Amino acid sequence: MLSIRQLSRSFREGGRVHQVLDGADAQVRCGEIVAVTGRSGSGKSTLLNLISGIDRAERGTVEIDGRDVTAMGEPARTLFRRAHIGFVYQFFNLIPTLEVEENVRLVLELNGVRGAAARDRSLAALADVGLRERAHSAVDQLSGGEQQRVAIARALVHRPGLLLADEPTGNLDEQTAGEVLPVLLSLTRARGTTVVIVTHDVAVSRLADRVLELREGRLHS
Predict the structure, then answer these.
(1) What value, to the nearest 5°, has the Cα angle with vertex 21 and ends 18 and 26?
(2) pLDDT at 70
(3) 118-136 burial by CB neighbour count: b if 16+ within 10 A, else e?
(4) How far apart are CA 72 and CA 67, in angstroms?
(5) Residues 217/19, Cβ–Cβ less than 8 Å
(6) What is the pLDDT of residue 17?
(7) What is the CATH number of the domain that holds 197?
(8) Is 55 within the bounds of a domain?
(9) What is the mean pLDDT of each run of 10 residues along the chain (221 residues)?
(10) pTM for the full model?
(11) Does any domain span residue 211?
């Protein structure tokens, strides 16, 4: 369960204060896939950063499975995020100096899983996205769709309860997005992972269980 209550965040630009979130509320059930839409600059990425604890809210709370992320200090938020949240980004955010399997395995190693156990789990995660044979390839040898599938494997390899995706199809053409999106959704549904996807893609919204629009600082069904 993800619970967002009265979440507020502003920023200062050009001597003026801009209110990005202003008392946003939402409840996301365990295993639910929710798409968050809204115009550019409405605060969608800020919302994800607040949910994950990357940024701090000025007011309000974020609870993930009963844990109040907003009440944690920075070190605790970092450890919680590392163990319990997966991320998929528009531009993949893979490490170019690491092989494909090493990119996936790094998440496990940061969580204390090493050696053969980490390798086996990272290879299994790559098999889940159809890329087991590319395990030892360099990242720059992959197509955009393949890189995003690696990013999905990396996001899910440590079995997080919550996955946050920021425009996961935004850097893909329509055909490739149509191939990658079902991989993301089928894997998360099979595992009961709660998913929040920020998107402008109508296809993503149609496949989500529910759509929330971020408008004037608040979330609307």
Answers:
(1) 175
(2) 94
(3) bbebbbebbebbebeebbe
(4) 9
(5) yes
(6) 78
(7) 3.40.50.300
(8) yes
(9) 94 79 95 94 91 94 95 95 95 94 97 96 97 96 96 97 94 91 94 95 90 94 88
(10) 0.94
(11) yes
Provide CB contacts within 8 A for 96, sequence distance 6+. 138, 139, 140
- Provide the domain limits for residue 17: 2-94+160-220
Among 208, 197, 142, 115, which Cα is nearest to 164's?
Answer: 197
Tell me the per-residue pLDDT of 101-154, one tens digit each, with 9 for 90 and over.
Answer: 999 999 999 999 999 999 999 999 999 999 999 999 999 999 999 999 999 999
The count of structural domains within the chain is: 1
8: tokens are 């507020």
Question: Is residue 186 situated within a structural domain?
Answer: yes
β-bridge partners, 86: 163
Smallest CA-to-CA distance from 38 within 183, 169, 166, 164 is with 166
The beta-strand segments (E) located in 32-151 are 33-37, 59-64, 67-68, 85-89
**Cα angle 181-183-188, degrees, rounded to a multiple of 5:** 100
H helices present in 129-198, as ranges? 144-156, 174-191
Asked, for residue 139, whether it belongs to a domain, the answer is: no
CA distance 53 to 139: 28
